[in-house]
Fold:
Amino acid sequence: MRFHCNRCGYGSKYKHHIESHLKRKKPCIPKCELVLSRDPLIRSKEMLDKISPNVDYICPAGGKIGQKKHVVEPHKDKISPKKNSIKMEVCQYCNREFVKLKRHTKVCKGPVGERYTCSHCGYKASQASHLQRHMHTCKFRYKPSNFEEVEQLREEIKILKANIQAPSSMPYTRNITNNITNNTTNNTNNVTIVLNCFGKENLDHITPQYLKQLINGPFTSTSEIIKSIHFDISHPENANVKISNKKLPWAEVYYDDKWMMKKKVEVLEGMVDNGFNLIDEAYHNINPAEISTYQKDRYNAYQQEYKSKHSFRKQLVKDAELIVLNH
Structure:
């Protein structure tokens, strides 16, 4: 058993092949509108007439042969449908053709353009997914109760803005009773900061009293003195080091009146050593009677770990890097 298409004569032994053939996007060409010759290479009527005006014409619908065109055309309406052909039925609600109309009528929702309509703004969609996407951005979905008043106020605001932009065209009818004059003075102060070169910072604010306080807590003294030297708010001229990208092994330092790139590890180790030397020098200059035994023991332990343990120095370098990154 074979199934055939009434329009173009396509045939197949499988029914679903015919169904997919009828549902395709571009419909097939009606078979009686085609005029073919016995030569399969000749496809158009114009080619056929140029080659030979007396060539036989054949209609693929009824198989009728004749020498002239008028012999083929009159029998178009008399062609009987073949057996086992599929009939297309038209839906009265959406005006579309279907092979199984009964199944379609159970789920038909009317014309395609009016199936899915937004209840807020009247937007029409042909698919449910399109309507769902529209509902996320619908401006009228959460319409307030006083929506008309809001729209009226918006229009009034637009008119007022237009009048403000063009004051000469707006009639001036308001009566002014009080004249208030506000004078605003903007003073711009340009402050020029001359940076000190790296290694030649201004240490006037690092007093012996401050160093004595750092000695009381020696394990955090290096980080604190780095903050005071390079990132003191009252001395911005010492901010001569920065790390723009922590992933790169470079640091920027201000040297010889310009910013230079140097190895980050060397710069940070130099800052840590400079801070330790300042604290150690202050410790030896302090009168031993002013320091308790407990403070001496803690500073000696800090001094020993700094000189002997590489892991302790490495941790101090990491702390110094964090200080530079955070400033």
In short: The first strand starts at residue 3 and ends at 4.
